[in-house]
Amino acid sequence: MHMKWFDALNPLSSIFDLMSGARVGRSRRVAYLAAKIGLGAGLGLREARTLYFAGLLHDVGALVSPSGDFKRRDPTFVPVASAQWVRSLDLDPWTEVFVGQSWENWDGSGVPFGLRGREISLGARIVRVAREAAQVMDRAPMDVPLAERLARVRAIGQRAGEVFDPDVVRVFEELLGHPEVVLDAFGPYSPFVLLSKRPAGDAPMSSEDAVKLARMFGRLAGVLRGTPNHAERVAGWAMSLGEEMGLSERDLYSLNIAAYYHDVGWLVGNPGGTFGGDVQEERERLHSYYTQAFLQQIPGLEGPAIWTGQHHERIDGTGYPEGLAGEMLSLPSRILQVAEFLVDQEMALQGKEGAGIKRRLARLLHAEELAGRLDGPVCRAAMKRVSHDPEPASRDQEHFYHLSSEVSEMKKVLFATDGSEASKKAEQMVADILSKWTEAEVTVLYVSQTVPYYYEATPDLLANLSQYEESWAKQIEETVMNTFKDYKDRVRFKHLVGHPATAICDVADEENVDLIVVGTHGRGAIDRVLLGSVSHGVLNRAKHSVLVVR
């Protein structure tokens, strides 16, 4: 599966717009204008590309609140959360800086740092103007003539020297004299036209980043439905059953993507709303259709699109939305059907008395197979897994206990974290280590990534960015120390600045640890494809044992 950033992020930006209450196409409009202003200001194609993605992602933090509330619009929170999310992707490091400062104002009245004038990076000043222009245009009613709406956009120049950089405003006003720019950005068909405006030098997306995007949107769909971990649990079962059914590594990877995205139709079909009442059943029936239609816009996801569109179909034709049956359903879609069935039944059985959950799950699977609703071979593979594995998601624990039989003493452990969801799994593993080895001591390490500041870097700018990093490190420290509160005398936290993989290995050498624990998004037979850059770097450099928690 080969995707480029433009192909993946442009369709997904429609969800950014829908979920934040903006008019569809606003994110693409900001991206296009930011790149055009950058070129007009004399920047090169690489910088214009960075500006494009900064404009596209400038408000994504509104969707990724740590509280799970994607409607939160705290003006201090959004740019910080947006920058934090962008950092996790393999984009130009300056994308993060531009996004994190895109709410700053020329006169120092912006957030989150209150930067002033040229303390704000040039790219952020450009995104600020592009963002305001798009918002002003979208606030105008659709039936207002284009000339009148453009007059409203031009009016933002009155705040040059106050909110906006006067030089950036001057370039923007010159652009408004070009008819093709006006029609591309503000014309009646702008959202569709901008889908074809590809930034120069667009780069391929890594496999890991493709999974990160899918995982993010899977969680958003779960939050909307009140089940935040649903997609992740379905992905765990799907990968387990895919391996059992002998899928190739390529198909396993695509199946993982499909499992995370399988409910994204809830976001597309019900932007910013709630569920219930007379329309609940209809939305349930249509969400897989919307998922398939949405994923088909992304080159490289044609297969997962079909599989997700069929994940509520049934072998006997009683499913929805199309009532497909038998051989019309592909094997990956049959696996998704069983995986989601298992997750739904696990949730329904939690806290109930009687026969063990494993036995009851096996009975339910057998009943579905006998009724002809779910695929027989996949159900039998699931029953085998249910009988022999505690849970597919618990294979990390099996790895851990296997490791415990090989290590006679565990006295020093280095746990490297970045505060991500993947790190939280590793965090639980470290808690198990502390409970198993009463003499074990843990160093929790967070490394701030060094970013080359090659535009207008000033001491004040660097100090503010350093303050932001210190604040994030403090949040991580509070979270992990709460997890390890029963072992606080044996745990200490350390925050360093540098290249993460190198710093982790250096600390491991200095403290002569027995084990390094890191997290990754990788799963099953395709770990080597999906290992994150930090964990992969640690594995390549470390002289000590490394446990990568999936």
Automatic annotation (TrEMBL):
Protein name (record): Uncharacterized protein
Native source organism of the sequence: Kyrpidia spormannii
